[in-house]
Amino acid sequence: QIPTRNYLKQIPTRNYLKQIIRNDNGSRLIEQEMINYALRYQKDKKAEQSETIRQIYAKSKTSIQKYDWFDKKLLCTMKSYALSEEDVLKMLYVFKEIDYKDKGHAAIVDFFYFIGEPKSIYGMWMFKIIDIGSQTITFSSYTYLVAFFSMLGKEEVLRLIFLSYDAKRGYIELKQWKELVTVMSAHEAVNHPTSVAIEAFYHYAANIGNEKMLFFEGYTKILEAYPFLSFPLYRIQAKIRERNMGIKFWKEKKKKFLSARNV
Asked: Are 216 and 159 spatial neighbours (Cβ–Cβ below 8 Å)?
């Protein structure tokens, strides 16, 4: 385990350096001890921030609307996804780690760094679909992004990928399919059979006149055969859930939503 960049920036430098450069080899920090030192500081700092969040909640049991980060968008997200004030404050605590400069907004590149993913074309689809066109994200937009993406089901994630290429026509052409395969495999450490996946287009695409068109049904069949094409977005979704109240929290919330819908 390695300390996050945010906490490494905050470590009391003088004390840290003194322990690293001591002349006595026996008392000098070795590599693992340097990491452990930083991790202990990170743990203490997180506990301190967590206590601060609890104090804020304790003082504002009636409402969190008095804070400057609260806006109509956040209120709408809370109502749409049945988020409590305590849920919001927990996400605020996470957001503060991304917004380590405490500007009230975080760089999107820092968001990807925080969840341990490279900034990618498919990652930016999340921001595009919720109409975030800038390179920064506010807390209310962050909360909406987390709630929206965490509540998506398997088929909805597949539709997100599909809609990023179909240009509202309802189908994908060969050129777009090739681009999709390239984009979805660009940051993967393992080499995948991309050429075979591209060839699958000819088998699953429908013949419409003189053209080949890949509709959603055929597209899902290809992704069933080649799951590496959708895995990167599922991985991002899992990381977002994990870092914001946990995978269990979102699964239970989704289960409640589905139960209420079927009543």
From this structure: yes
